[in-house]
Amino acid sequence: MLVLLAGIFVVHIATVIMLFVSTIANVWMVGSSTTGTISSGLWLLCNGTCDTLPVSSSDEAALKATQAFMILSIIFSVVALAMFIVQLFTLEKGKRFYITGAIMLVCWMCILIGVSIYTARFTDTMREFERPHHGYCFILAWICFCFSFIIGILYLVLRKK
C-alpha cells in the first residue's frame, strides 16, 4: 500500500510540473518560415525574439479562456496535492480520499476544456508557415489530462490502510 501511495504521489508531482511547463512555455504550435522556426503558445509568438501573441478580436475570448482554464488546472492540481498530504495524516483508517479525488477530477475537467478550446480555435493559426504542427506543450497538456483522470479515479477508490 505504501508503494501505491508513493507512486501516486510521484505521478501527481510530475503532473503538476508538466502542467506548469505546458502552460508557461510557448511551444503549443510550431512552424517553419524563411527566418527560422516559429512557435506560438498561450502567451507569446516566438521567432528568434518573443512578442505578444497576435490574436484577432474574435479569438481573443477563446485565448483568454484557454489561459484561464490552464491556470485553474494548475491551481486545482496543487490544491489536490496539498489535500492528499493533509488527508494522508488526518484521515481515519478505512476512509477514502474523496475530496482529493474530486479536486483532481475538477483539474482534469479544466485541462479538457482549456486544451479543447485551443484545439478548436488555434490549430489553424499557423497555416501560412511551412509544416505547422503541435509542439511539446500541447502534447504535455494532453498527457496531463490523462494523468489527472487516472490519479483522480485512483484517489476515489483508494482507501487509507
UniProtKB/TrEMBL annotation:
TM regions (residue ranges): 7-29, 68-90, 97-118, 138-158
Keyword Cell cycle in annotation: no
Pfam families, A to Z: PMP22_Claudin (PF00822)
Matching Gene3D superfamilies: 1.20.140.150
Predominant place of localization: membrane
Keyword line: Glycoprotein, Membrane, Transmembrane, Transmembrane helix
Superkingdom field: Eukaryota
GO cellular component terms attached to this protein's record: plasma membrane
Family, per entry: Belongs to the PMP-22/EMP/MP20 family.
Protein name stated in the entry: Epithelial membrane protein 1
Lineage of the organism: Eukaryota, Metazoa, Chordata, Craniata, Vertebrata
